[in-house]
Amino acid sequence: MNRKFEQRHKNLFWATDITYIPTTQGMCYLCAIIDQWGKMVLGYHRIGAQMTASLVANTVRDVLQKEKVANGLVLHIDQGAQYTAQTYYDLSRA
Fold first, then answer.
1. 27-43 pLDDT, tens per residue?
2. Selection from 40, 50, 55, 43 nearest residue 7 by Cα
């Protein structure tokens, strides 16, 4: 993205991450995808005490089913274990 966070077109640059939410029953994890055009949350998944690659993969799959994506979509991620797992890698190649 070269730090160009303002985008002119929808569904070209997405960002995703996992947020930690402390609760009275323990930690809860939320994975969300945001379109850099309009800064809108396109989708999210919540899971309990485990932060897994399937949390990320399920979020990406759900958003891809709802959104019309142009060729060349950039999905900005961090380098966490969930994003470097084989599950996510396989999904990114589909």
1. 889 999 999 888 889 99
2. 40
